[in-house]
Design brief:
Blueprint: H1 6-9, E1 25-30, E2 33-38, E3 46-49, E4 55-60, E5 66-73, H2 87-94, H3 107-126, H4 130-148, H5 155-162, E6 166-172, E7 177-184, H6 188-198, H7 207-223, H8 225-237, H9 242-245, H10 252-256, H11 260-270, E8 276-282, H12 286-297, E9 321-327, E10 332-340, H13 345-357, H14 364-370, E11 377-384, E12 388-396, H15 403-418, H16 424-442, H17 447-460, H18 465-469, H19 471-477, H20 480-490, E13 495-502
Helix pairs in contact: 2-11, 3-4, 6-12, 14-15
Length: about 525
């Protein structure tokens, strides 16, 4: 199967090509609320902005009496302090533990203990002497056990379940943190009441035990050869940018010395309405829904000093760079080209080139390598991040075949693009194939999930909605000559190669779990 590029395929969801594409931004006011929409938008999405800066994306679909909801924060792993990585991801976990209103039997009594735990962790992180660290951790363990007596585990999850919610989840990437759930349409107000409370304040409840879950995630990533190759690729493509210098889940050292204070500071800085969006698709009434959102989120205070992200510039790559990693899984070569972010016009051309190379049926890699059995496996995908994008091509060798041979066979397919050695119909077929995937999503049981997630991407990628609506029109307008010219200009000796070989990893590390000091 084609590995769908996250910010590419999902960015295409629910947009059908119009026979006479005419798109314009409209601004209207209804029942006292002003919103923007786009002409010829099949999703009929309305975009509101509350006085406190909160963005609200709404799309009505009465296929089923349910609503899929995403709440997006425009901050992720790249916003973590360099000396305290993993904050955004750990905060995502803490968001499910409740606050001073729910998740506790007696918050005033619990707070005394939670404040003590925060102070002890701050001391622990600043202490290097082993015996002192063990003593501090013993105290943290003891106070945490006392604090846990006041906690009501999983109360938030239970409340969502009681109102019929499902698909409750969250994720953190380099650029965003997102919370998602699917609820019955007639429970919208109760859900918004809960969320309005949840996003205004958090507490460090069950922080001690939740570390174990984060440690397990970290250890799984350290054991996964594909994840190690991904991180190694980023490290060398982005020697100066947080994309390469740190990971979303955080370093072992920082996870061993967590700062509750810094996590709370992160929440206070970024979890504000002028840095957030509520995205809904389903059986909703536009006027009633926006009024309810204002009722429960309108008093959420904005951060007038919201930290502004400044892109970290990387020097151009001028020569290939190769490195190798080791692990028990199958050998594989990955080749990565670095480009500008997913909001640029060039990103559309990268998407088309990727599909020309590999689309599980008629791409050049499919036809020339897979169907002719020149390699065991091969393919490509685009990872579209906000500041930069990565076009990755990969291949697995046959028995007695070298990774270098696989690399050259894959690079030869890019050369074919640069030479224009593909039939003109293939370019049109690629766009048609993408449209087909969109129609299949539109007919699926998860249509509202994909539509609402598209709103998340528009918000967190800083992409005007009109560009989403006109996406297929823009793709269809790109000619073969433009694509060939772009490939010759941008696909040169400017790539990183990661050779994943079989063998014991000399740099293997893990975080110790359990009640011993981490």
């Amino acid at each position: 199967m084609k590995i769908a590029p996250l910010a590419c395929l999902l960015a295409l969801i629910f947009f059908q090509c119009q026979s006479t594409p005419k798109h314009a931004v409209l601004k209207k006011t209804n029942n006292g609320y002003t919103y923007e929409s786009v002409t010829n938008d099949p999703t009929n999405t309305r975009i509101y902005t509350l006085d406190n800066g909160l963005k609200v994306y709404l799309s009505k679909d009465q296929t089923a009496p349910r609503i899929h909801i995403f709440t997006a924060i425009k901050a992720g792993g790249k916003n973590d302090p360099a000396d305290n990585t993993g904050l955004a991801h750990y905060l995502e976990h803490i968001m499910f533990k409740g606050n001073d209103v729910f998740g506790t039997k007696d918050y005033e009594s619990e707070k005394v203990l939670l404040d003590s735990i925060e102070r002890l962790f701050n001391q622990y992180g600043k202490t290097n002497e082993d015996l002192k660290r063990k003593e501090l951790y013993r105290q943290i363990d003891a106070v945490s056990n006392e604090a846990a007596k006041f906690a009501i585990p999983n109360e938030y999850d239970k409340m969502i379940s009681l109102i019929g919610g499902k698909m409750l989840n969250a994720y953190t990437t380099e650029d965003r943190t997102v919370y998602t759930v699917d609820i019955p349409a007639n429970e919208l107000e109760r859900f918004l009441q809960i969320e309005g409370i949840r996003f205004k304040k958090i507490v460090n409840r069950l922080f001690h035990t939740e570390l174990e879950a984060v440690y397990e995630e970290k250890n799984r990533s350290l054991d996964n050869d594909y994840w190690k190759a991904f991180q190694t690729m980023n490290k060398h493509l982005f020697p100066n940018h947080p994309y390469g210098k740190q990971t979303v889940i955080g370093t072992i050292e920082h996870l061993k010395n967590p700062s509750i204070t810094e996590i709370l500071n992160y929440f206070d800085s970024y979890y504000r309405p002028n840095n957030a969006a509520i995205c809904m698709s389903g059986d909703l009434d536009y006027d009633k829904t926006i009024a309810l959102i204002e009722a429960y989120f309108g008093e959420w205070e904005p951060n007038e000093n919201l930290p502004l992200w400044t892109k970290v510039d990387e020097s151009p790559l001028v020569t290939p760079f190769e490195t190798e990693i080791y692990g028990p899984q199958e050998e594989r070569v990955s080749i990565g080209f670095r480009f500008d972010g997913n909001h640029t016009e060039e990103f559309k051309k990268i998407v088309l080139i990727d599909m020309l190379l590999y689309n599980s049926s008629a791409g050049l890699i499919d036809l020339n390598l897979m169907q002719q059995q020149k390699v065991l496996r091969a393919g490509s995908y685009v990872n579209g991040l906000n500041d930069y994008s990565i076009h990755t091509l990969f291949g697995t060798p046959k028995s007695n075949q070298s990774l270098d041979e696989v690399k050259n066979l894959i690079l030869n397919q890019i050369d074919s693009i640069k030479q224009g050695a593909f039939e003109p119909w293939l370019l049109k077929a690629v766009v048609t194939d993408l449209k087909k995937k969109v129609m299949e999503q539109e007919d699926s049981n998860y249509a509202n999930y994909f539509r609402a997630n598209e709103m998340v991407l528009a918000f967190t990628n800083n992409t005007p909605w009109i560009e989403r609506v006109s996406y297929f029109d823009d793709l269809s307008a790109i000619t073969k000559d433009e694509l060939v010219s772009f490939a010759n200009e941008h696909y040169k000796e400017n790539y990183v190669v990661v050779n994943k070989k079989n063998g014991e990893d000399p740099n293997a590390k893990k975080i110790e779990r359990g009640k011993n000091p981490p």
